Every structure is written in C-alpha cells, then in structure tokens.
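Dear V.,

Thank you for sending over the compound details. I've combined the ligand you provided, 2-acetamido-2-deoxy-beta-D-glucopyranose, with the protein sequence from our construct and run the structure prediction for the complex. I'm sharing the raw inputs here so there's no ambiguity about protonation or stereochemistry in the SMILES, which I know was a concern on your side last time.
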Amino acid sequence: MAVENCSHDEEAGLLTGKISSCSKSKCWFQILLASVSVVLVISVISWYPSFGGRFIQSTNKKGSIIISKSLDNNPLHFAVVGDWGRKGAYNQSWVAAQMDKIGQGQKFSFLISAGDNFYENGLSGIEDPLFEESFSNVYTGENLQKPWFAVLGNHDYHGDVLAQLDSALVLRDSRWHCGREYQLLHQLESSAHGGSYVEFFFIDTVPFVDEYWQTYHKPMDWRGLLPREEHLVQKLQVLSKALESSVATWKIVVGHHPIYSEGSHGDTVELIERLLPILNTQKADLYVNGHDHCLEHIKREDSSINFITSGGGSKAWKGMKPTPNKNGVKLYYDGQGFTTFTVTSTHLHISYFDVYGSVIHEVDLYK
Ligand SMILES: *[C@@H]1O[C@H](CO)[C@@H](O)[C@H](O)[C@H]1NC(C)=O
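Below is the predicted structure of the protein with 2-acetamido-2-deoxy-beta-D-glucopyranose bound, written out as structure tokens.
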C-alpha cells in the first residue's frame, strides 16, 4: 500500500480523494477532519427536504452511499450533464430549462455532473461566487432540486480543486456532492424479488492524462495526488475491487474523460490502456463521460460496454463531422444537450436530448 497515501480503508469510496490528499504529518488529523465532513455531508443531505424520508442517505460497510432504501422510486430516473459552468452562457441556461422540463415527467432521483463544472479555471476557493453564478442560479428548476453527484474535470484542476470537494459548498447549496472516487448504490427491487441493484462508480480521470503533467501545460492543482503513479495504481485497484465485489445488476462507471470519442479531443489513450481493461474484465455496463462538448453513443464489437458522452452542458458546436458507424459510433451530435436514464432490474433506457428538449437518440439495454 502506498506510503504517501494514507487512506485507511481502501473500500471507503466516499471522499477517498479527500482522505488521501493528506501529507504524512497531518494524516490523522485530516482523516478526522474528513470523517467529520463525511458525516456533515450525509447529515446535511438527509435533512434536505426533497429527500424527505423517501430518499434515505447512508453508507454501507463497503463505503457506498445508499441513495434510496425504499423502493417506491422504481424505475430509477436520473440525468447526466457535463461541461457546463459558464454563468448560464453558451446555452447553459437553455439546457438547464430543458432538463427541468424533462424532469417533470421523469422525476429524477438525482443528477450527475460529468465534470468541468466551473469554467475556465474551476473555483478559486470555497467562497468563489462562481459556485452560485454557474450552478445554484442556473439549475433553478423545480425538478432539478435533487442531489447532484459530480466528478472533477480538467478545467476544475486549474483552480482550487479541493474547494469543489469541500463540504463548505454543501452548506451553500445542499444539492452539491463532488468527490474524486465514490460509489452510489440504489436498490431497484426488494430482496423478496431477488434484490437487484444499480451501482455507480465515480472516478477522477484527470490525473491519468499525461499531457496535463507536462511543464508546458497550464498549471494543475495536483494536491493529494502525489506521487502520481502510486496514486493511479491504487485508484485502479480500488475500482477493480469495488466492481468485482459489486452485486449490482447494472454497473455504471462515470468519469470526465472519454475512453472512446469521435469529438475534438478524441480517444483518451491512457484510459484505453489502463481503465478499459478493468471495465471489460469486471463487466461494466456503461461508461459515462463528458470532456468532448457533444453527445455520443459508441458501442464497439470489441467491448460489451456502451460508451456514453454527455458533455453538452454549455459551449458546443465544434464543427466536428465524424463518420457515422465508424468504430461503433451510433450517435455523434455536435451540439448542446443532456442524457436521461431510466433503470429497472431488467431494462436500462437512455434518451439523448438536444437544446430544444427533442429526443435525438435512444438506447435500450436488457438483462
Ligand atoms: C444555442 O443552441 C442553438 C440550437 O442548437 C444553436 O443554434 C446556437 O448556436 C447555440 N448557441 C451557442 C452559443 O452555442
């Protein structure tokens, strides 16, 4: 186990990044602090009215957040949006309005942010007004007043990256939950009916990308991630173990960078080499990401995983025109939008929406 990395419980998915961010000397103090903030996050979230008893929040012994114990919100509905925080500009507010409109019918239990939460340079600190300007004051719709589970994107690393992980933000907007690595578990059917689950595995993909570590690259806030290689090895081990021990019917992995993409950034070779083999072996059903500012669905012959890019939260229209059906590309849409997911124990349905709230692509998976 890594010396520098003092995470005492490899399976404590919740806020692992926080716990592992400490230096040797401050280790125990920070673990204490992190534990206190975990408790704080959980308590604040459970007080939030929309959870109102029906949406009970707790963690299991493997560190997964239990997002619902009651089964009255089966099927589960949730939405994914990435690459959004631009004070409402570049159609961010328009996408937000459509998400709210669709949420009226679908009744999302929560929303997922696929990273690049605050442009251009993340948050400058826990007091940064950008948090309200780009999040709280934009996603104001009634049907978006649900927990938001976020990962970090590369732009978030240009600022104070620890600020986005800080529970101080939860006090400013109780919907906010951002972590480096964590899991969510949702029960779809009661034990009497086989006890099926859907589990989400959130992973911070930013430190995998070599380019960001080059001296010519714009500075990144790498606090808590050094030494890099040890951190990455441990992160992958934890993910692999968590996927392997998961009893969920559906396993959904969420990160900022695409594994495969036809967008302007394209494939992420580091993830093809290091993350994809684990997801293939452990039979993840979906890999969901942002980074390329577009909507994509890729299903290749050489992997059972469906690759979903939902990076259309604001600035888009890069002028990309990928060849349809190349490398299993089922959808490439260059503009803004978001995706919604409906999950039962036997059926997973994905809808892709554009800025007008029109469905532009659908995916159906069955167990
Ligand atoms: C907003 O969305 C419309 C419709 O897709 C598009 O034509 C327009 O270019 C978008 N505006 C920006 C700034 O991206």
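A first observation: The mean pLDDT is 85.

Warm regards,
I. M.
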